[in-house]
Amino acid sequence: MRIGSGWLMRVLLGIDDTDNLESRGTGYRARQLGLRLAGEGLAQVRGISRHQLFVHPDIRYTSHNSALCLDLTWGGRPLSELAELCRSFLRAESAPGSDAAFCIAPFDEIPDDVVTYGKRAKNTVLNQDMARELARRTDIHLEGVTGDEGGVIGALACVGLRKGGHDGRFVWVAGVRELTGVATVAYLLGSTGIDIIRTPDDEILAADARVLVDPWPRPVLLDDKAVLLIEKIMEGAHGDHDWKIVPKEIIKQY
């Protein structure tokens, strides 16, 4: 990986295992890290996605065994600076007892082997040696920071899954957490990071269709797009809108 050289590029940053049972989760820390990167003018955050990994008795995890991936437009500085910022952030912000790690990879340089590894992490027990060997072989920056560094497994996996473009749901895209009440499809597509709004069976809505956006929308990752899944409200059961976000049980299937 071209750590140490710098130009404007799309970069994936995976983090995992930053929490404990009493602390806030890795999703929160991913958003805080994104805020810092954007606030310091180092990167534009395109989106932050959550990827569900295998739940099995042989795998240590805090609550759900999910990892988070930040999709960045990196602002042209050496990637070694991103690695140093991530390292210091996770050392300072990870919860006591965590096994935090991070992974950095230019989007266009992530090989199919890493995508395959990410898919395996959804249904197979993997270990640190597998993750570290794959990172060495594919020249990807993978680094443990706290504890036994077990987060390297998920940090690499979520980068592979995000590159695959068809897994997980977003915990952040621009503008979604500020939404409340009812909004038109045109507004949502024009003023947030949502790329597509459709039903689970692929029906596309008219621009003036009105959608209830409470609770805040959680787009899913499909074909490298942030896709908001909505459903029709039963006739007579609404006021000034005809559509609502699909239940969380459906979103969790992605």
From TrEMBL:
This is tRNA(Ile2) 2-agmatinylcytidine synthetase.
